[in-house]
Amino acid sequence: MFTTELRVLRRGDIFLRQKRPGSFGLTRSQRSYSDHRLKDEAGAVIRIVGSNIYRFGDSNVAAPVFRNVNWTVREGECWAVIGSGSHQKTTLLQSLRGHLRLAPPPPPPGGLFPFLSDPPRDAHNAVALVSFAHRPQSTGGAFYDYTARYGAVRDEDRITLRESMFGEYDFLNIRPKALVESKTPEELATESVKKAIFDDLTTKLGLVPLLDLPLVALSNGQTRRARIVKALMFQPELLLLDEPLTGLDASNRPTLLHVLESLHKTRSPRIIMGLRKQDPIPEWITHIALVQQDRLLTGKKETVLAQHASDAAQTEAKRSSISQSSIPKAGKELGRPVAILKNVNVTYDTRKVLKSINWTIREGEQWHLQGANGSGKTTLMSLITGDHPQSYTQRGESYLELFSRPRSKISTPHLRSLIGIVSPELANAYPRRPRTTVWEVIGTGFDGGFVPGGKNGIGIGLEGDLPDDVVRWRVNRVREVLSGCGPSSWTLCSSGYPTLRQDTTSMAGGQLLSKLDEEFSNRNFVDLSAGEQSVVLLMRALVGRPQLVLLDEVWSGMDDSMVRAARRYLREGGVGPDQAVVVISHWEEEVPWDVQEGLRKFKLEEGRGVEI
Ligand SMILES: Nc1ncnc2c1ncn2[C@@H]1O[C@H](COP(=O)(O)OP(=O)(O)OP(=O)(O)O)[C@@H](O)[C@H]1O
């Protein structure tokens, strides 16, 4: 009945529209809203009209996460959700999965997803979200050993990528499900469809050579492509992909986008992508939902981009009038070597991942380590951090020297105190204990461990006893990184204007800490947003002024203002001329320095490494 009525309405028959049951007794504006709704509902995939979006548990008088959202996605349109902050964009996508509350809720019969109403289907099964934007909020209190993949594969990690795809195991959780002895014809039919999707997509996304590798051996980018295939095998009708390009190398990005485009065009499934502001927008995207704090700007791509460009130009004009030029780097004499690699190799059975790598990293140098997904960047870093067992086995022609000593002559705990590291693996593995504060997490960076220690939360040193001047230096350093990258610096960077750091807590003889940063330092790490956690882990890497800083996907999950603040801090003294930095990223523009400032590039290709 509804459809018939709708058809009539779409022909624009005003008389019939006014006669529609339920519209009698409505005011003119209610009637026009109601008519507008019915028009919009036809062919709508998503429809939100004038709703606020709240966290569950918040009342309607609390500040909504998003205000007055008007967003209709129609069949055939290709949408990207773009966020100036990573967090807000992800929250919007999560609200489509029911993680947040819409008030007023989109009314039945169409509801939030009109396309699922005839015949009625459960949005829970039909709409899937795969997110690469954020790290898990909590991985529990224990540290899990992310370096396990570098050694001999343990029995429980033996499950291969192929096995993980077919439901006997939870993907990336590696728990065998109850074994089913006999299958019904429906189950068999579903399986054969899954198998066809699997064959098709693993071929298109270049995963076939990896199918029989243990899941834990896959690189970051390989794992991400595999997660997308797994989600598609469940045949959702709408797939929300948050930051599918993050962590993918330049050659895999167009391949994935091409696959997504053809899937979307045949609605198998419809796809909505979440993108970061700096990601290129694929040509086939026709519409954009731009998340700007608590507002959503939606419309045709060109219109939204034009509006955004004019807003951004105004902000940039304000910012450039007050910005300082970055502090030039110290002179370029050769610093002391922190790592010397000569003919270094890594092999798994017959698989040679690194072949004869020659590379020297010195104090005062900034390097961009490049290479396609699976080219061995993480493996190379794990040799330098000493986490890889093969860091000990470089003999004869092969040689690995770290901080002027052969690898075998320097203990792993000592290495951890000399290297500050941020990486997706470490971020996932870092324990989220219920009552560990931000200050304590930063303080673990001095000794490179994961368990807070010492009465000031600044560690106890490798000898277990810190002299008073070292205690003072460490406390001061925690305050310095908090002031450099903490919330007061985000405010500074989001408005475009420097805000006076009022409310400063006075600390006799030491670094001053604003109230905002002080409060932040007392918060529980586990309660922070994913972006805030990333910032804290960056501070942890920098706090001890280690000789070597390794920054692998360092901006993951951070909002724009956090990225700007952290970049500025890194460029303006956060790392000094006595420190070496290696940045791993698939995006040139993510590296805080450029070649004019002395940045050098080292590229891995087919196992070999060259300076480019
Ligand atoms: N235990 C293992 N057995 C076999 N191959 C392995 C093992 N561990 C890692 N590999 C392979 O080593 C290669 C290098 O992996 P690595 O994680 O270093 O790549 P990456 O350059 O960091 O990739 P990404 O850009 O995706 O993060 C990958 O092809 C991976 O599958």
Mean pLDDT: 80
CATH architecture of the domain at 363-392 and 407-611: 3-Layer(aba) Sandwich
**Continuous helix count:** 19
Question: CATH homologous superfamily name of the domain at 363-392 and 407-611?
Answer: P-loop containing nucleotide triphosphate hydrolases
- Rg, Cα atoms, Å: 27 Å
Small-molecule binders here are: adenosine-5'-triphosphate
Low-confidence stretches: 1-35, 169-176, 316-331, 495-509
Q: What proportion of the residues form beta strands (DSSP E)?
A: 15-25%
Give a count of the beta strands, DSSP E runs of length 2 or more: 21
The CATH topology label of the domain at 363-392 and 407-611 is Rossmann fold
Q: How far is the first residue's CA from the last residue's CA?
A: 67 Å
- The assigned structural class equals alpha/beta
Overall form: globular
Helix content: 25-40%
Note the main sheet: 6 strands, mixed
Main sheet: strand order: 5-6-7-3-8-9
The CATH class of the domain at 363-392 and 407-611 is identified as Alpha Beta
Description:
This protein is α/β, with parallel strands linked by helices and 612 residues long. Among the domains are: 1-38, no CATH class; 363-392 and 407-611, P-loop containing nucleotide triphosphate hydrolases (Rossmann fold). It has helices at 2-10, 14-19, 28-41, 86-96, 123-126, 161-165, 185-204, 220-233, 252-265, 301-322, 377-384, 412-418, 424-429, 438-443, 468-485, 487-495, 515-522, 530-542, 560-574, and strands at residues 44-55, 66-74, 79-83, 100-103, 127-131, 238-242, 270-276, 287-292, 295-300, 337-348, 351-362, 366-371, 399-402, 405-406, 419-422, 504-505, 513-514, 548-552, 580-584, 600-605, 608-611. The strands form 5 sheets. The protein has a 6-stranded mixed β-sheet with strand order 5-6-7-3-8-9, with helices on both faces. Helix 19 (560-574) links the parallel strand 18 (548-552) and strand 19 (580-584). Helix 7 (185-204) runs antiparallel to helix 8 (220-233), helix 15 (468-485) packs parallel to helix 16 (487-495) and helix 15 (468-485) packs antiparallel against helix 18 (530-542). The longest helix has 22 residues, at 301-322. It is globular and about 70 Å long. The N and C termini lie far apart (67 Å). The model is unreliable at 1-35, 169-176, 316-331 and 495-509 (pLDDT under 50). The site of adenosine-5'-triphosphate has 21 residues, from helix 8, strand 11 and helix 11. Belongs to the ABC transporter superfamily. GO terms for molecular function: ATP binding; ATP hydrolysis activity.
